[in-house]
């Protein structure tokens, strides 16, 4: 772990030094991004206790890269797995992409709002397969009574969003993959609907939600737009392994193996 962590940190340190050198030459009137804002809080000496050190900033960026990479790739794999298990869902998603985007250009961020069925596919995949099934632990700041239970101060609280997403009192036929449940449904994953919290809620919800929203739609949409997908010989949709394992994110126990082919373009 020390060796792997050091290698990752060295990569980020290199990015950081390139960025700091480039920022010296940047026009101060340019719009700032997230890294710029972090460096605005960078301090040097002990007289600036409220500032961030260079090392702290680099570790912060490292954590963002690590946590954002694993959860996104895991969510893409689960979404594609569910699509492969449900050929009618794949057909509807591909038809929507063909009508809205076509085949002569790539899917862009501006297309996301015009692809409600693809959006529903991703929401349904996140309901059944949240990347962080217990979210980030919370801690009670005072003794609290909740639903008849006394929770003492400083108790670590884990929110089982995996269980919430499969609760039959909240969802009809909760174990089936049914994107249609999100069509015309205001339920969203931005922390306002407590029956659906794949990214958490409140001040400690996932800070990369906007990025994940864009990447998931573009990657899954692009995979469906660019290829026709088939299973390996001998594998049927019903026989795809759906076992889970807990890693940095809730992954498939057996990686999905599917074959891309050039799409049969509509005339």
State the main characteristics:
two-stranded antiparallel sheet, 267 residues, mainly alpha, 7 helices, single chain
Task: Lay out the secondary structure.
Layout: H1 2-25, H2 34-40, H3 54-85, H4 87-100, H5 116-128, E1 138-139, E2 144-146, E3 149-151, E4 156-157, H6 161-164, H7 209-226, E5 228-231, E6 244-246, E7 250-252, E8 258-261
Antiparallel strand pairs: 1-4, 2-3, 5-8, 6-7
Helix pairs in contact: 1-3, 3-5, 3-7
Short synopsis of the structure:
With 267 residues, the protein is mainly alpha-helical. 42% of the residues lie in helices and 9% in strands.
Report on the structure:
- With 267 residues, the chain is mostly helical.
- It is 42% helix and 9% strand.
- It has helices spanning 2-25, 34-40, 54-85, 87-100, 116-128, 161-164, 209-226; strands at residues 138-139, 144-146, 149-151, 156-157, 228-231, 244-246, 250-252, 258-261.
- The strands form four sheets. It has a two-stranded antiparallel ribbon with strand order 1-4. A two-stranded antiparallel sheet has the order 2-3.
- A hairpin with a 2-residue loop joins strand 2 (144-146) and strand 3 (149-151).
- The model has no long low-confidence stretch (mean pLDDT 89).
Radius of gyration: 22 Å
Provide the structure class. mainly alpha
The proportion of residues in beta strands is: 5-15%
Poorly predicted sequence stretches spanning 5 or more consecutive residues: none
Mean pLDDT: 89
What percent of the residues sit in helical stretches (DSSP H or I)?
Answer: 40-55%
